[in-house]
Amino acid sequence: MSVICLLLGGLSTELLAHGVAAGDKGFIQQSSGVLLIPFAYLGAKHMVTGYDHLLFLLGVIFFLYRLKDVALYVTLFAVGHSTTLLLGVLTRVSVDAYLIDAVIGLSVVYKALDNLGAFKTWFGIAPDARAATLIFGFFHGFGLATKILDFEMAPDGLVANLVAFNVGVEIGQVLALSAILIVMNHWRRTASFRSMAYGANVAIMTAGFVLVGFQLAGFLLLRSTT
């Protein structure tokens, strides 16, 4: 439960935008040329502090006990995230950041409901978890690509810096997921895990709905002022 509390605590900051700190925004906007290490660091920082990504990944690995299963699902998410991050920026295709972040919030809701067995109860069949992880990975990457496009990165060194950023994202994902797995594995060995698993997934689902609500509120507020 401590993992969930930490992630929920992060929801109080930067809820109305895909998390890129103001200082990082300034660096991205002013940078020119190939800067591999700084952009790799920014990518890792984004993933480690990206509560939306971490909540989704927490839901994905919640009931995965074998390392090869964790590796499979994390790889699917990484492929989806990397593909739309790179293509979104390079092709300059974007949508409203609030709407894409609302979908990301829904991905958290989906995974919690899946863990709770809701789809099986409601429809008699559950979505393919592997396909869903890949598809939502596309949305997660597209959300960040949309925000990066808003920063108008310099064309000089763009491809190299994007690749470095993406490598950093994957490094950050491994670091964050390793910490989560350590806590989860300890929790799973306790007698309270089974009794608290339901409540934990309800908390994850609630956090997802909060994300969706704030993003939609931001979208409506923006439209009302333009």
Characterization of the model:
- The chain has 226 residues and is an all-alpha fold.
- The chain has one domain (36-217).
- The protein is built from 10 helices and no strands.
- The chain has helices spanning 2-9, 22-30, 36-49, 51-61, 67-91, 97-115, 118-123, 129-151, 158-188, 192-224.
- Helix 5 packs antiparallel against helix 9 (158-188).
Offer a quick outline of the entry:
The chain is mostly helical and 226 residues long. It has 10 helices and no strands.
Key attributes of the depicted protein:
79% helix, globular, 226 residues, single chain, mainly alpha
Q: Kindly give the count of domains.
A: 1
Number of strand segments: 0
Mean pLDDT: 86
Amount of beta strand = under 5%
What is the SS-derived class? mainly alpha
Query: Regions with pLDDT < 50 over 5+ consecutive residues?
Result: 5-17
Report the order of strands and helices. Answer: HHHHHHHHHH
Distance between the termini: 42 Å
Separate helix tally: 10
Biggest sheet details:
none
What share of residues is helical?
over 70%
